[in-house]
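Why do we bother with holo predictions? Because pocket geometry can differ from the apo form. Keep that in mind while you read this record for zinc ion.
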Amino acid sequence: MFLISPHKKQFKANLHCHSTFSDGKKTPQELKEMYRKKGYSVLAITDHDVPKNHSYLNDENFLTITGYEGYVRPDPSAKFDVYAPEIHVNFFARQPDNETMICYDPAYCQFMKKEEQAKLVRAGSERPREYTHAYVNEYIQTARDNGYLVAYNHPYWSMEKEEDILAYEGCFSIEMCNYGSYLMSRLEYNGALYDKLLVAGKRIFCHAGDDNHNFFPEDHPRCDSFGAYTMLLAEDFTYEAMIHAMETGEMYSSMGPRFHEVSMEGNRIHIECSEVGSIYVFTGSKRPCRIHAAQGEVLTSADFEIDDRARYVRVSVVDAYGNAADTRGFFRDELEF
Ligand SMILES: [Zn+2]
Ligand SMILES: [Zn+2]
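The structure, written out:
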């Protein structure tokens, strides 16, 4: 069976992006131009508490995913505190025309004028947002009930505990890398956290996004575009197919390398990828399967035998610059071994 099928097309996506509709510096049109030129086919413009359909930008080779980034902070006035934890989630609309605001709270609507807020389609409780597990779970469930897929954003930046993330239900995927945060700290590559969630039995996929705000130009070392992306696998290039790829985990996260194929036959796994220095298969054990290229050489494939105590299987490849690509975790009941 294929974990990454060579028979599907791969569509490069940035699933986390800010525009002039919130605190980003680029207009949606400028973002489309930038990303299209770099080979992207999909862009989710996810402004802070600004649900927006940008499908006026779509053409036969470029799709925008409707959605936004929602958040909950401990302070009821939503005041930002660099030392306090908070939760950010991306809402991706199953239907492009869905601009529903989930759990409207004016304290969080800082980027929308009062007149625009008055026109919002709203769903869910409108009491002030509460930074509690119960409230966050209600927030996520309300979004799901109103046509959104919900992703968990930048776990390192958010400073939440692992137990908090485990307590949240209903997120389909977590950011393996959030490039904006990675540029700040180098620590927002979340391979270790992702394994801990999988070992705990959490059924969650992984993806990556830039979370770009574009305060710096493209040739600047602090440019936050084009550092982390998601490859969506599908046969057709339609909105529906992109959403389907996301919700069924037909995708992988990358900061550079590409997967061409990952397949399993019995307990044997076969991996084909772009040129890398190391290939790992994590299974929840202390000893991942791994192979490293000899000095001055590269790897483009690997084969391993997975031991019969493997809790799950996930593949990670790392190129000469230290940039990784990661598949999601596949649990044993999804695999035929
Ligand atoms: Zn965020
Ligand atoms: Zn963001």
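The domain at 9-255 is CATH 3.20.20.140 (TIM Barrel).
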